[in-house]
Design brief:
The complex is a heterodimer of chains A (266) and B (289). With 266 residues, chain A is mainly α. Chain A is built from twelve helices and no strands. Chain B has two domains: 40 residues; 216 residues, MetI-like fold. The longest helix of chain B has 35 residues. Chains A and B meet through helix 1, helix 3, helix 4, helix 5 and helix 6 of A and helix 1, helix 2, helix 4, helix 5 and helix 6 of B. Chain B: Pfam families: BPD_transp_1 (PF00528).
Chain lengths: 266, 289
Amino acid sequence: MNLSRTARTLLRAALVAGLAVIYVPLAVVLLNSFNSDRTFSWPPAGFTLRWWGAAWDSAGLRDALWTSVQAGLGATAIALVLGTMAAFAVQRYRFFGRETVSLVIVLPIALPGIVTGIALSNTFHTVLGLPLGLLTVIVGHATFCVVTVYNNVLARLRRMGLNLEEASADLGADTFTTFRLVTFPMMRSALLAGGLLAFALSFDEIIVTTFTAGAGVRTLPIWIFENLFRPNQAPVVNVVAAALILLSVIPIYLAQRLSGGDPQTR
Amino acid sequence: MTTLTTTAASPGMRRRAASFLHRHAGVRLSLLLSAPLAWLGLAYLGALAALLVTAFWSTDVFTGDVVKVFTWANFTDLVTGEVYRTVALRSLGVAAAVTLIDLVVAFPMAFAMAKLASPRAQRWLVIAVLTPLWASYLVKAYAWRVMLSSDGVLGWGYGLTATVVTLSYLWLPYMILPIYAGLERLPDSLLDAAGDLGARGWRTFRTVVWPLTFPAAVAGSIFTFSLSLGDYITVKIVGGKTQLIGNVVYDNIGAANNLPFAAAVATVPVVIMLVYLAAVRRTGALENL
């Protein structure tokens, strides 16, 4: 390539600077969680593990975490079933309105979260008369999680082709046996990757959650948001933030392992 | 086989169901589509439609109940109210500014990743850009709150600028990744050919690189634009007193208890996004998502 030495150096510098901007705020949060001072003064006053202990002992925090896990698992389970079904239909069949199916599946994530949020809460509340609670949160999350499973399964089906399934049928296996012994094992890693993304999406969601959770239901993001503006809770919020940054390494590692070096995007 | 007891009947049933399904592709397709379409096609689109209908209703001033009578009042208020026009324009400005900042920051980064780094380094760089996407959205906004607070590392204080900076930070990876993918698809030989024909760096960028990666950049802009347009959480965290469309919707549901008006306001970002999507469709950006 005919780039001058200066241009190359500048581009590399831009990359390094950009990555620094991406990581510095996360590092600040991590550092601050060990800050012995209550406020987020800079530089930190001293080192302490006191806030990590306080966060561990907080019952409200533990409840919120458990609610988030339940909501995430519920939404992921629904998304896995619906996303797989839709992906099979779109990839394996030709029918009228096939393109529209993809559009409808992407829509909940393409529209602003607040629109999806109030549309669903309005339907639960006024149209169906359902009380808002954990169940409505799961329904709301599942709606925008379907797309992650759908995309992953669709890509896998496209690469898989039909040869092995046809061979299985030729050897006498019926539709269900072929699915159990041939199709499903080949899709397993795509389902895991899609499910992982769905869980992460649900775990981090706050806007749709705000509108679909009743008064008593508090997911982790809602707990963080509620305590963000309370000065005496600041150190504990800091610890939760730091812990979430550290935990985000786990899905990245798993996604890397699953995709065999082909990093997954949302 | 027909004389077997009920316990043995199920494998026969299964076999018959399997062969029935095998022979009838239409039935298979309907079964596969039923649940996803009932959920997303009927329930979700239905919810959106119901919201749109609500936008044409009003609330009783005294009781606060929804009055289910058709009226244009919400939309008239929306168009004539100067406050709402200002807020809508401000939201558009914020979304445009965030998109522009992300584009300017992301392009050189993506170029260095795709064209200057070794294949091994590329893999790690993609992971490095992806990882912050997994860290919680709130945590990242909070990190900026910490840094921007008057006694923080930067200490710029909160407001509109803080909102733009934080949103640009939040959505930056969404811009880097499509552009990187677009640049990776761009063959190096084209750049070499431009060089052989006498084009220097800037000219190559203007006449070869940019036109060919434009759809990828537009794909990234869909994320940055849409995500900024609907946001109200970041504004609350670092925006000080700043209000965006999202806040107006939120306040009308909560404090003002006026769902019809909130629904009317919520159509604004939807319409803007639909116009945006229609405008960029011709660039082929949607295939780059």
